[in-house]
Queue: 3 jobs
Job 1
Amino acid sequence: MTKARKVINLLQEFSIPLIVGVFAALIVANVNPHLYHDLIHHSLVKGMDWLNLHFIVNEIFMVFFFGIAAKEIVESFLPGGALSPVKKAINPLLGTIGGVVGPVVTFFALTALFGQQHLNQGWGIPTATDIALAWLVARMVFGPGHAAVNFLLLLAIVDDAIGLGIIAIFYGDPTKPADPTQLVYVLIAMAVAFAFRKFKINAWPLYIAIPGAIAWHGLHAAHLHPALALVFVVPFLPAGSHDEGLFVDEKATDEANNEHHDHSPLEQFEHSMKAFVDFGLFFFAFANAGVEFSSVSPITWIILASLIVGKMIGITLFSGIGVMLGIPLPEGMTVKHLPVVGIVAGIGLTVALFVAGAAYVGDLGYAQGPAKMGALLSGFAFVLAFAVSKLLKLEKKK
């Protein structure tokens, strides 16, 4: 492996572009708010005010981000995947349900307690888990060989599947009523993708360029979020019998490359787009994380508490009940690991930022900045996770 490749792998593995983008946005937004606004919302083409960096990132780039998330979900159902056979995933799935119910209940309880019910539209924000960052922190807290890492990964994948559904159903454009008739284009896109697969078309770019574009148009015309376009197309990409996925050890992957010949279109899509998405997250973070520190308000702390405390309680409670009912945790895990898994799952950064931008618009737009700050602060959950793991005397596994 060349030095350049090692540097790129390191940047991707530790989500450096995303983190740098967050700090760059915070610095610019707090040093010169007007400059930040101009950079994000300045029209790139005269007469097309909507065509700006924010649109390109949130409406187009995020198509590929959610496409790769969909790929992870599809992969989990393949033979040998995290959801195959389903019985070994029952306890993590219980934890996933807790990881959604816990934050939502906590959010509504806290908005009621602090008189913020007018901001209940943001209930979907704390349901999110940032898969890449949570996976990274889990490896650092538990050790790369620990069963809790795969437990968390499965939980995060299914959690994001639920999150995609929440975005699609509950967070359309409030200024433009949803037009379900336009979803016929999404059905057409799925039919085209199915036909491609039926006729053994293996060039993955064709799936993205044709049915992907049709689905994007349908969602946009229906006033639903077009960033979800590939969620309806990726499941039709032909998949091989084995696919390592995003979260394998980079060194092990490189060593196995010469022996690994399962280059299915699904796998090629992920491998071809992964670097683009990983480094593109710098622009997503820059376009969405520019929050002024002065904008912190009660909803900031409600989002943060719902993410960390809500997920910790929900995951521990639901998976713990599963253990009591005779549904075991993966070998190598005990109930003591669940609170730490819940805290790590509370890192909602990327998807939480996205949902915050979709939840608080129009008359509630003033709450978007404070809500995003709560999502950003959830990134510090890793400190709490380390502290609790030490308190519970959990051992790392290499």
Note: The CA atoms of residues 41 and 55 lie 8 Å apart.
Job 2
Amino acid sequence: MTRTSDGEARSTKSRRGTVSVVLVRPLAMALVARGARAPALADFYGAADLTPEILADADARMSPAQLCVAWSEAQRLADDPHLALHLAETIPAGAFGIVEYICRSAPTLRAALTQWCRYLRLLDDAVLVGLVEEGALSALRVLVESEAPAPASHELCFALVVRHARAMLESPLALHVRRVAFTHDVPAAQRDAYRTFFGAPVRFRAPHTELVLETSDLDQPLRTADPSLLAILQPTAEEALSRGPATLPVTDQVRRTLRAAMQSDDAQLDAVAKRLGMTGRSLQRRLRDEGTVFQALRDELRRDLADRYVGQGMSFAEISFLLGFSEPSAFFRAFKRWTGLTPYERRASLAGA
């Protein structure tokens, strides 16, 4: 068990959960701001199995796998390996709703970070973050990672914490970032931008994902402290926490799991059921209750991905591999059955549209 900064003991096993679509809105807005056209935006929404209508719903949730895919697709479309750092400089204050406003209203930096760790679950209950104090240094640390990590989302989180903390303290120089660490890796040529942004050493492929500060910084007061607003917001946040984590329909959970497993034999009923913590028979029964069956979901996902990959100009051998077909000829037969066209014919029709 791990005791977090909010005083609650929690298991360090991997976590399943859901993510608020609020965390994806900055990605969509960034693509629009960078001049992304309708086809690119359609690719972004399609890859993550989202729609503009879903993103507009403040109560909508998605799986961690969707967040991971959304980040990957946004970085690809924006052609920006430092998208998280650039977003941190442009996302307006208040973009993360009640969680952010509670942190801004806290009396000290310590209180703000403690509140962030506690109420982050309203935005993402698939990860566990804690404020770990170790003598002269303290770390905002990812204690438990989700089953489908989105590395750039951690980069954005730490970048936003540093940006806003510097703005809310009496002086930007009052925040002493000692080091930043990520468990993921980036190419060596891209690392200088991180050191420049954080003003501290940044390590990749580290044992923990963490932002390390001087403990003495935590007791500094915030210029944005507002005890009256905090007293109004906290009961609302506590009530939301008491309702427990939101769950996705089993149909949606299967779609997300299949998307990650499509390239291997893991895209089989028993393997998907195991990843969702149930038996194959139980999964089939729950899917029937929602009006579908496993094979139909797999075929639907394969069909949608195949059409998108064909339109993107990928080689047919690569598409066959990505969709888990034993050989290209099997992919050709399936595509003709789904669409009435061969992949060649479909690509030609899209090129002439």
Note: Confidence is low (pLDDT under 50) at residues 6-14.
Job 3
Amino acid sequence: MAFAQRLRGLGDGASRIALVTGGDDALAGFPPALMRRAALALRQRGITVFKEACTGIEAGHVRLGNGARLACDAPVMAVGTSAPAWLAGSELALDAKGFIATGATLQSTSHPEVFAAGDVASRVDAPHPRSGVYAVRAGPPLADNLRLAVGGGQLRTYRPQSRSLNLMSCGDGRALAAWGGLSTHGRWVWRWKDHIDRGFIARYRVATDTLSPAAGK
């Protein structure tokens, strides 16, 4: 949707955007109401959805799982999270998808001296969606337990939240939102998302004066 908005801003009336989903509906796994809102938003922006897998990218087209060839001048790939291949030979306990199996203290279930959180790990005691929200929030508990492990303290348990807020920009000043089974959309949702995103980035912003040559003198 961001690409479609950008092309409209350039006055390009010839280019078309297509979304190849990999076989499922767009946003599969999210609440049905959000999926319907997303499907409508895509249609309103003239984006064609192909519920097929991409089996190959060649000059001038994309090959689909049903054998069709989709004309394509500029393919853009967005892939999901997958476990690093080296984990398979690490001797660490892994889940069914190859991620490090961890428990309530974020320790490996097979090697307690190993801690893991975020996209490389799976909480076998508290399964949850693989998203940045959960990865970011596991950071402080992970840091605390690393300090406690080094200092000989009692490790603390960490339980991820049962649901998270998901916000997706529609590219035109509107956004979609989902919280548990609830969903909504509108310009106010985009402003909400923009406020959250800017606030998050501001926490990690480095003052420019600390990076200047004079700062080191």
Note: Residues 67 and 120 are 34 Å apart (CA to CA).
